[in-house]
Amino acid sequence: MGNVMIINASPRAPKSNSKEYAKLFAQYCQLQTEYCEVKKSNHLELCHMMAGFSDVLFVFPLYADSIPVTLLNFLKTLEANLPQTKPTISVMINCGFIEPQQNDTAVAMLQLFCRKNGFPFGSAFKIGSGEAILTTPFRIFLKAKMKKFSTSIQNRKYGTFQVTMPISKRMFIAASSSYWENYGKKHGISKEEMSTMQIE
Amino acid sequence: MKLVLSDRNLDVFQEHHPTFDFIDLSKLQISNCVGCFGCWTKTPGKCVIRDDAVNVYPRIAASDRIMYVSKLQYGGYDTVMKTMLERSIPVQQAFIRLLHGETHHIQRNVVPKEAVIIGYGNTSSEEKQIFRHLVERNAKNMCFERYQVKFVAENEVEQAVRNEVAVWET
Questions:
Q1: Which of A79, A152, A185, B60 gets the most CB atoms within 10 Å of its CB?
Q2: Do B130 and A105 touch (CB under 8 A)?
Q3: Using the beta-carbon criterion (under 8 Å), do A72 and B82 form an inter-chain contact?
């Protein structure tokens, strides 16, 4: 039996959607899991822990079309402090856009890191509409795909998975506009104020 | 405005180039984006972290020609440049639009631009390929109308930038 180290590399890990996705993964995965968050001060600790796991799952949001700096900096530390036994690395990436394939570049970057440093690459799960899907009825699609993703890691039959809201792009834009409008309202900011064209 | 955004000092800008705005990011204090969405939902267009980044992203938005000079890492920008690019999201709104059939954020007052991206380091062909894809993605989110990607070794950066500056000055 293997075990999975789940590493949340979101810049806002304690309050992140990535944390919720990690929780769901742990629910569905029948292997033993341990959840960790990347912090500025714990890179070496996480690197040393890795040798005790058969699998590592990085969970993070897409930032400026690629991996967030939080993860980039951790990977640089990991490259300089490679564990003696190398776990298989899988990734679960969420982006706020409806197209899960917008995460492809980030997946390719992790695959490159693995090849360069001798880690086997496992599964990739690309989540579109990742900012909101968990709070909509469409979460059932996410859960179904999450089960498949976790099973792939459990059975070492790795693959690529993706999910998004099954709606048209125009409907997605309308729904996301309402989502963000309500988000602004919570801070007393109107849609018009949020739409300002002014920068600074 | 012509802007050169670099993750290292460039001697070429010790010389007089009055039409260029040069920013050496390695000399600035720029914290990581914390993903708070404050620049979209609390103080739209302004980052809530008031460090040196707030003097940089308005200049990125205002430029019509831009050059990024960055070391590459795993097929992407290395830490210094990537940190700044992540801190540039105040130039976008939270709201989403369709662009070339894909969903992307609406831009605020961002001038459409011509970009040259100079990636340096000991870069494999696989890494170059990933970086080209990344810049293609960035082009949609950073208002690049046209762009070129160039790869050079670390000791060739100065000359590569000089060459581009000469082209832009003609």
A1: B60
A2: yes
A3: yes
